[in-house]
Amino acid sequence: MKGSPKTGLTLVAMDMTLRVCETVTDKIEVLGEGEALISAEKLIAVLKQFGDELLTCQIDDRDHMTVLADGTRLRIPGEPPNEFPAFLDYSKTTALRVSAKTLVEMITKVNFAADTEMGRFAIDGVLVHAFKDQIRLVCTDNKSLAVSTLKLDRKVKSKQHAIVPTKSMLLVRDLVKGHEDEVELRFTNHVFVVTHGTTEIAARLKEGAYPPYGKALTMKAPIKVKATKDKLRKALAKAALATGVYSNSVTFEFDTDELTLTAKDPEAGESEIKVAVVYA
146-187, pLDDT tens digit by residue? Predict the structure, then answer.
């Protein structure tokens, strides 16, 4: 943490893959310049115990923090601030602005296809691809593919792409969920940065090449059908009741004006659900 009477209190936490930075200016008074390196686990425990009580925090010359409250005095051991590990530099990057609500919708639409098995060939990440006047999120587990594309109000200077760990992308979604304003997205060769208000999340990128998903997008489907989303979702949920360990799939059978969903498993049983469709 780093404090200044001019800028307030800045809290920074990080691990090997993620860096989160939050600047606090409301309901806080910083009386002098200073910084401290304190265990996040210990600091959170202290804040939970004191709730809304007024706290006074002081840092001594041994880098320890003293917390004073009504009738209470705590001394928390700290470490020299210069021992806090450095993160990748991303200051010289161009920001792309997108709606917070739209970003949440895009992450939600593609996240289901992210690989969660963590095997040798797992693709545990969300591809963020910015090109021309578009930004695209892509997820695949080599079985299914989900793509969400947003048209930007201006063209990007050059193609940019990043494979962001799924865990980091879900944290971004939770950060901006429920907001209507804009967020800033920035890329480097090694880090993906999202800034929203006084909060900044920087995620170290995953290495490697993403599968050439574009080939799947260019495939032409000779037949297209339209169905009501809610009805299809409910029908799929009902059909999935008959899936299990031996057969974890639902079969789609298209007829003249209806779609039949079937599933069969030796232990879970059988299901057959029909949904009305219209050929486009």
Answer: 999 999 888 888 888 889 988 899 999 998 998 989 999 988
The dihedrals phi and psi of 112, each to the nearest 5 degrees, come to -60, -25
Q: Taking Cα atoms as reference points, which of 69, 72, 13 lies closest to residue 37?
A: 13
Amino acid making up residue 77: P
Average pLDDT of the residues of the chain: 88
**What is the rounded CA–CA span in Å between residue 166 and residue 183?**
19
- pTM greater than 0.70 (yes/no): yes
Q: Is the CB of residue 264 less than 8 Å from the CB of residue 247? A: yes
Q: What does the pLDDT read at residue 118?
A: 52
> Does 85 have pLDDT greater than 90?
no
User: How far is it, in rounded angstroms, from Cα 64 to Cα 59?
Assistant: 6
Grade residue 121 by pLDDT with cuts at 50, 70 and 90.
very low
Contact (Cβ atoms closer than 8 angstroms) between residue 139 and residue 127:
yes
C-alpha gyration radius of the chain: 25
- Mean pLDDT, to the nearest integer, of 46-63? 90
Sign of the alpha-carbon torsion through 202, 203, 209, 214: negative
